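Subject: Sanity check before I submit

Could someone independently write out the structure tokens for this chain? I want to compare against mine line by line before I put it in a report. The sequence has 283 residues.
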Amino acid sequence: MPQLLRASDNRNRPLVAPGDGGPLALTYFNLLRLRAGESHTLDVPQCELLCVVLTGQAEIAAGGMSFERVGRRASIWDGSADSVYCGTCPRVTVRALRDGTEVAVAGGVCDRPFAPFRIAPEEVEAVEVGSHDTHARRRICHILGQNANGRAGNLLVSELYGEEGCWSGYPPHKHDTDRLPEETDHEELYHYRYRPETGFGAQFCYGADGGGAEPGVAMTRHGDTFLIDRGYHPTVRAPGHEGYIFTVLVGRRHRGLVQSFEPAHAHLMAKIPGIQAMRDKFR
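---
Independent answer below. Compare away.
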């Protein structure tokens, strides 16, 4: 069932990993926090990995390749991310070049070989969804999306920037059943940040009958992580707080994501701008 992980110092150890007994069987997620000159080596067999420099700058080595000076942002709010898709290399080394370097490592189980490549900020594809009037304004920056078709497995990674008081993941949708062309089965992980950091929001998760997918609704704070294996899962930010969600999706059988929208709210798809563009970017 879905699970909320409260913010903590993970000491560069994975928060989520395949086989750890949690609700996500295919997903890997780690946060590396390093000072200048410090390095950390990841050993994650049978997974494809993506290293996203959230803040600071790093050198990233994977598959016999070295990617220099990865990272251009002083904070997650300063433009698109600089990242390295590390492929299915079991060992990846990240060395910080600046103090305060933070790297999000997203991964998914993968049984096919893929080679590393860099994803510069200019290659990140963004889509604007919603409006002020519909209280659903957000910007989704696809780091590993269509730009990696044919070069990656079933891993999709994006950053979502939600305006204060606005909803995302809305109209409510789910992706827990493979029944093409209507829906695909994708695990999902949300990692939240707020500006200011005292911000908070609410994460909903419920089944087709309005229940059956605990915890139902949870208060989310800066640094929390939510694991979604089933159910509809809209989220909202409190007024006065901008929101950021680092999003990891891993498809069980397919790379492209097809969301199934809750029938009771399907009429909102025509009312909220950008919904179809959002759907197209995930496929």
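---
OP: Matches mine. For the report I'm noting this point. Residues 186 and 251 are 4 Å apart (CA to CA).
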